[in-house]
Specification:
single chain; mainly alpha; 245 residues
């Protein structure tokens, strides 16, 4: 189930295509499915059951979306702060040593977990069928990438990496650090700039969500994507310790 080298190189493109298909949900027309947004569907469900009013349910779903976007941005930035953006965005797998610092003392894949939380926020703006497809497809490709990296790092680092895996969980964070910290200095500004798209999505939900207009939030997300592409073009790689992302 591990990803190939080509999949890893094209991972950002593959994820972008999955998100696009989730938003467009072209099968809705062919299967005559309802195109109601997931946000509306989740808000209407408890309202119809009489648990809460539709307005309160809508606000609750929005808050959940904001929190998922925030957690995704925080995890991605925290993980990126201990890696160079060139490694995070690299087309090939890296791993000269294990980074025992920051979030990597609590879980092995903070960037992938951050992407999953980010996905949970985005699917609120998709048609319900697109949301289901997106969650399953992103989870599938994420696990393939994780298993691919684990296989690569095991072959390259051997017992050192296996000992790290035995102590640090793959995706569910440990509340306490599981291994001693290495003297790695985080680059917070560079990490924020590298993950500015994630922060743009959070800001779009937090600032525009209260208009209850999905199209407006999507426009904010697209602007965030454009800004991130410009910023990333100016980010220069610096020397850093390499590890699984």
């Amino acid at each position: 189930m591990k990803a190939t080298a080509l999949e890893f190189r094209l991972r950002f493109f593959i994820i972008a295509v999955i998100y696009l298909l989730g938003f467009v949900a072209p099968w809705n027309i062919l299967l005559h499915l309802d195109s109601i947004r997931t946000w509306q569907f989740l808000a209407a469900w408890p309202a119809r059951s009489g648990w809460v009013g539709f307005s309160a349910a809508t606000i609750t779903v929005l808050i959940l979306g904001i929190l998922c976007a925030l957690i995704g941005a925080l995890l991605r930035t925290w993980g990126s702060a201990y890696l160079d953006p060139s490694i995070v965005q690299a087309g090939a797998m890296h791993g000269d040593t294990v980074v025992a610092a920051g979030p990597y003392r609590h879980l092995r894949n903070p960037l992938y977990l951050g992407t999953m939380f980010h996905t949970l926020a985005l699917v609120l703006l998709m048609p319900t069928s697109g949301a289901v497809f997106c969650i399953l497809a992103i989870a599938f490709i994420q696990f393939r990438l994780i298993f691919g990296e684990e296989s690569f790092l095991t072959a390259k680092l051997g017992a050192t990496y296996l000992a790290y895996c035995a102590k640090v969980p793959r995706l569910i964070p440990s509340l306490t650090a599981r291994i001693p910290a290495l003297p790695v200095t985080p680059t917070w500004l560079k990490a924020f700039l590298a993950e500015i798209y994630m922060w743009g999505v959070f800001i779009s939900f937090a600032a525009l969500g209260w208009r209850y207009n999905s199209v407006l939030i999507i426009k904010g997300i697209l602007i965030s994507l454009g800004v991130s592409l410009i910023v990333r073009a100016f980010l220069k790689p610096t020397a850093s310790i390499e590890s699984s992302i």
